[in-house]
Amino acid sequence: RPVLVLNGPNLGRLGRRQPEIYGSTTHDELAELCRAWGEAAGLEVEVRQTNHEGELLDWLNDAADTATPVVLNAAAWTHYSYAIWDACAQLTAPLVEVHISEPSQRPEVFRHTSVVTPHAATVISGQGIDGYRQALEFIAAKSGD
Ligand code: DQA
């Protein structure tokens, strides 16, 4: 089964959304880059984005059922969704939390907490789009263990 890269709300507008914070790479371009980075690391990668929390929960539940590694940018849900906390808690394969920006350095205090971090094997933030490459390399290294 492919490794999943799951992106949460508003990331579908990547490239157009606050480019001064999130950069100019679009979500389609990110998906293409993730597939290429995965291939280089020996991983098949599937990239998905949703603005619907229940859809992300379904994907995470499937990943739990199938012991699939996940790279997760839960976007704003990161900061307050206890349903995503519970979904992440069920995962058995490596979970890597990614943020394009560095939430802990941003002025909004709500960004300073994460429901994903307690369950993540590692957190990669503030690296821009390259954080996804680093996350996939982390998972590739883990699956070689
Ligand atoms: C984000 C950071 C979150 O605080 C924000 O709500 C996002 C994107 C990031 O990738 O930097 O939507 O997860």
TrEMBL record:
Keyword Amino-acid biosynthesis: yes
Pathway(s) served: Metabolic intermediate biosynthesis; chorismate biosynthesis; chorismate from D-erythrose 4-phosphate and phosphoenolpyruvate: step 3/7
Catalytic activity: 3-dehydroquinate = 3-dehydroshikimate + H2O
Keywords: Amino-acid biosynthesis, Aromatic amino acid biosynthesis, Lyase
Site for Transition state stabilizer, residues: 17
EC number annotated for this UniProt entry: 4.2.1.10
GO molecular function: 3-dehydroquinate dehydratase activity
Catalytic residue positions: 22, 99
Short name of one Pfam family: DHquinase_II
InterPro entries linked to this entry: DHquinase_II, DHquinase_II_CS, DHquinase_II_sf
Binding site for substrate: 73, 79, 86, 100-101, 111
GO biological process terms on file: amino acid biosynthetic process; aromatic amino acid family biosynthetic process; chorismate biosynthetic process; quinate catabolic process
Subunit-level organization: Homododecamer.
Function noted in UniProt: Catalyzes a trans-dehydration via an enolate intermediate.
PANTHER family xref list: CATABOLIC 3-DEHYDROQUINASE
Entry's family note: Belongs to the type-II 3-dehydroquinase family.
Protein name, UniProt field: 3-dehydroquinate dehydratase
Species of provenance: Nocardioides silvaticus
